[in-house]
Design goal:
It is built from nine helices and eleven strands. The chain is an alpha+beta fold and about 270 residues long. It has two domains: about 150 residues, Ribosomal Protein S5, domain 2, CATH 3.30.230.10; about 100 residues, Alpha-Beta Plaits (2-Layer Sandwich).
Length: about 270
């Protein structure tokens, strides 16, 4: 099987407090976009798990794909082996959910190939054990994420046809982004899809902009091209602009191409 593993953007991310386990409590709106990795799965009658990737540093047993495959094989006593190859195209540690998306597709694909018979609630329970965003990618589209982000409620599709993703070639760990929030003493923001331009918001963005001047300048430059929205996705470092004009989008892309940044034209998908 060859599976497309789609990325996401966060149109909204508010931190509403802290949970007893130390994680931040969030309220976030996530949307699937058409940028994706490709993952091939080859079933073997006997054998173990073999994993490789076009990005050398990701081809380790610590990769979420490997961890979940091992977990499923051991928990459900699977005799068949599997050979997995990840063609990584989504920027890494970039706020686009590539690793979480890969993990979700691993759960759903091995459920089919190994005929595990897992229900949706069972797959969601497994996903929640391995990360906060994985549950969203089990369904995709547009959704509200709550608690750690693993409690998912579907939302009506938000059609955004002209998005420019810009990645400055620096990774930012989620733990770093959340540490930079500082005090949680602020007015809680809310999202209204009927007022998309004014509702888009990311609580992690101010701390990142202070700590990473390149992100601050990137967002300022995106705005200068007449975007409807310019913001950071998730914990960064990818930022994006939402455009109402193809010409403005292409001008903005050319500007960041000249600076040597990663630029990708994208759109939301249902």
């Amino acid at each position: 099987m060859l599976i497309a593993s789609y990325a996401k953007i966060n149109l909204f991310l508010e931190v509403t407090g802290k949970l007893p386990n130390g994680y931040h409590k969030v309220n976030t709106v996530l949307c699937s976009i058409d940028l994706c990795d490709y993952i091939s799965y080859d079933l073997c009658p006997r054998g173990d798990i073999s994993f490789s990737c076009n990005v050398k540093e990701l081809a380790t047993p610590d990769n979420l794909i490997c961890k979940i495959a091992r977990y499923l094989k051991d928990r459900y006593h699977v005799s068949e082996g599997i050979t997995i190859y990840l063609d990584k195209r989504i920027p890494i540690a970039a706020g686009l959910g590539g690793g979480s998306s890969n993990a979700a597709t691993c759960i759903t694909t091995l459920n089919q190939l190994w005929q595990l018979g897992l229900s949706n609630p069972e797959m969601h329970s497994i996903a929640a054990e391995f990360g906060s965003d994985i549950n969203f990618f089990l369904q995709g589209g547009c959704a509200l994420g709550e608690n750690r982000g693993e409690q998912i409620s579907p939302l009506p599709f938000i059609d955004i046809p002209k998005i420019l993703l810009i990645n400055p070639n620096i990774p930012i760990a989620s733990s770093t982004a959340y540490k930079l929030i500082g005090s949680l003493d602020y007015d809680i923001m809310s999202f209204d899809p009927a007022k998309l331009k004014s509702s888009c918001f990311n609580r992690l963005e101010p701390g990142i902009r202070k700590a990473y001047p390149i992100i601050d300048k990137l967002l300022t430059d995106i705005s200068s091209f007449g975007t409807e929205v310019a913001m950071m996705s998730g914990s960064g470092s990818t930022c994006f602009g939402i455009f109402d004009s193809e010409a403005k989008l292409k001008d903005c892309k050319a500007h960041f191409d000249d600076l040597g940044m990663i630029t990708i034209i994208s759109k939301t998908i249902s």
